[in-house]
Amino acid sequence: MKYCSLILLIGISILRAEDTGALYTRALELFDARHLDKENAVKAKEIAAQIAEKEPGNVKALILLSRCHLFYGEGLKTEDEKRATYEKGAEFAKKALKLDEKSADAHFYYAAGLGRCAQLKGIFNAIGAAGEIKKEFERALELDPAHPIAKVALANYYYQVPGLFGGSTEKAIELLKESLEIRPNLTMAAVDLARIYKNQGKKKEAIMLLENVLETITPAIAANYYLYDKKEAEELLKDLKR
Questions:
Q1: Tens of pLDDT along 198-221?
Q2: In this structure, how many other beta carbons lie within 10 angstroms of the beta carbon of residue 57?
Q3: Burial class for 179, CB neighbours closer than 10 Å (0-12, 13-18, 19+)
Q4: What does the H/E/C string look like for the chain?
Q5: Is the pTM here over 0.90, yes or no?
Q6: For 132-183, how does the pLDDT look when each residue is reduced to its tens digit (9 = 90+)?
Q7: Which long-range CB contacts under 8 A does 198-206 form with residues at least 24 apart?
């Protein structure tokens, strides 16, 4: 009888693990389809929260919660609301880091949350946090050299931080080009590179990149493309062709 009970318990544990895995997959699918319906992000957050409550050590669920908060923060009206949401997102990523220091995504989203908070607090606070943000982006790339979003984020760091504090337009361009070599249809990298070229007066190079973005059929990250990249490319191209 004890033997049968043990088998039954093992079976229940496996089933629950499988259920959690299926739930996470569904949550991720919903979040990746947030451009189709904003409610998808709401549902993804709810599912991820349920998983994290049931399994506090579920790193993937914590990272997804961090991503959801970064997304929600963008749509909030006041700076206080945005800051509180970004801080919460960073906290979820930090919890994931404590559980798995070798998670490239945990490092990336922790840095992303810190970065958003720093931007809201003003230039001096942003510069003060820059060292930690840079370190986290670099650690994400150290763990996953092919993590193209981390390359884009680090490129933006180099481009936005003043040269006196380690900024470098040349390094930013190099990282964006590397991102596009890894994933040619990573439209966020193309738009950012085009923006730098535009500011440098390299009109022809910028236009070519932006036209390629608008002709993209299968963007690497569909949600980003339809929510941000396509619109930004259209606006930049319009300015360049005036």
A1: 999 999 999 999 999 999 999 999
A2: 12
A3: buried
A4: CHHHHHHHHHHHHHHHHHHHHHHHHHHHHHHHCCCCCHHHHHHHHHHHHHHHHHCCCCHHHHHHHHHHHHHHHHCCCCHHHHHHHHHHHHHHHHHHHHHCCCCHHHHHHHHHHHHHHHHHHCHHHHHHHHHHHHHHHHHHHHHCCCCHHHHHHHHHHHHHCCHHHCCCHHHHHHHHHHHHHHCCCCHHHHHHHHHHHHHHCCHHHHHHHHHHHHCCCCCCCHHHHHHHHHHHHHHHHHHHCC
A5: no
A6: 999 999 999 999 999 989 999 999 999 988 887 789 999 999 999 999 999 9
A7: 198/236, 198/239, 198/240, 200/169, 203/240, 206/236, 206/240
